[in-house]
Amino acid sequence: MYLAEVIGTVVATRKDKSLTGVKLLVIQPVDSKGKYLGSPIVASDTVGAGVGELVFCARSKDGSLALPDPNAPSDAGIIGIVD
User: Which of 31, 55, 68, 76 could form a disulfide with 43 if both were Cys (CB 3.0 to 4.6 A apart)?
Assistant: First the structure.
């Protein structure tokens, strides 16, 4: 699990059927002080996060477990919003 800042949204004209209704966001991993780490990635969102919010994320299979179809092809997922 890691922290990230939501920096944008993804508009997809076509995506896998199992991701229908799932919002995709661009996130930037950050450290505990908010400093950017690495490159931005695309993550599935089931918690209703928005641009500018700090979120908890998971990668790999763990990132897709919160999706309606846990077998959906998702490499990262937003699993919580930091208040």
Answer: 76
For 56, other C-beta atoms within 10 Å of its C-beta total: 16
Average pLDDT along the chain, 83 residues, taken 10 residues at a time: 96 90 95 94 94 94 87 92 92
DSSP E strands, 1-83 = 2-9, 23-30, 41-45, 54-59, 76-81
The bridge status of strand 54-59 relative to strand 76-81 is: antiparallel
Angle at the Cα of 57 (from 41 to 16), degrees rounded to 5? 60
